[in-house]
Amino acid sequence: MSDGLYVAMSGAAAQERALDVVSNNLANTNTIGFKAERITFAETLAKNATTSGEMSFVGLADSLTDHSPGQIAATMNPFDLAISGEGYFALDTPQGIRYTRAGDFRLNDDGRLVSLDGHLVRSADGDEIAVPPNMTNVTVNTDGVLSNGFQDFGTVAVVQLDPNTVQREGNRMFTGVELPEEYDEKPYQLLSGSLEDSNFTAIQGMVDIVKVSRIHEAQHRMLETYRQLNNRAARDLGGQK
Fold first, then answer.
1. Cα dihedral sign for 138, 142, 145, 148?
2. Is residue 167 within 8 Å of residue 175, measured between CB atoms?
3. What is the DSSP letter of 180?
């Protein structure tokens, strides 16, 4: 079998994975706090079975998360929070502390500030944030302090993570190692009544879909060409017996 057939097969498989990633990004263009995933490709070398040299295959080098910020849109809901700058919200989940840029928060039936999925939002001192029943006119300032003007109910934690440790976990959440607060000026500002949109747009998605699809189709045409060549070679060699 031609070595080129294996090379084309590796390229087609890599593009199928890329197509899955682009499709997922496109499906989340309206997901609050979503961070797009990017695929990088790498050349993989393997011993050639018919020569003393090596063959090059297409491999997936890594799947990377694009942490660039999305557009911030106003919602007028005081418990919707967006981070302008660097940092993540911290949530208490059954799996431990998780981090997110999605600030679509609300008060649950017990008056605790929770995420859309019901996870408790951590305060700056590591506790939960609770607002007494029937409390009105509660706002959140740029430092993350919940207050009604007379009483403070807690400060929403915004943590910095070591970028080398941040890993996507799904459902808009990440794991990572927190960095100590060693800055003279906060690298962020909290915007109440606002949410950070996905950092992947429908236009980007359509461009990526077209590009990946064309490469994928080219790989399959190459596969078909090599199949035809192999079949012709088999017929020709068989006819010489």
1. negative
2. yes
3. P
Q: How far is CA 159 from CA 78, 91, 220, 236, in A?
A: 21, 11, 46, 68
Answer yes or no: are the C-beta atoms of 25 and 205 closer than 8 Å. yes
Helices (H), the chain: 3-27, 202-239
CA dihedral 176, 179, 181, 185 (to 10 degrees): -80
- Residue 179 in contact with residue 158, Cβ under 8 Å? no
**Region of 149 on the Ramachandran plot (φ > 0 left; ψ -120 to 50 alpha; else beta):** left
Give the helix/strand (H/E) hosting 232.
helix 202-239
User: pTM of the prediction?
Assistant: 0.77
Residues 56-84 have pLDDT tens digits of 545 554 678 999 999 999 999 999 999 99
**64: β partners:** 38
- Give me 21's structure tokens: 């990633």
Residues contacting 147, CB < 8 A, separation 6+: 138, 139, 140, 141, 153
Q: What is the mean pLDDT of the segment spanning 141-168?
A: 95
Angle at 236 between CA 234 and CA 238, to 5 degrees: 65
CA distances from 130 to 30, 43, 155, 212 (A): 29, 53, 10, 48
Residue-level pLDDT at 95: 95
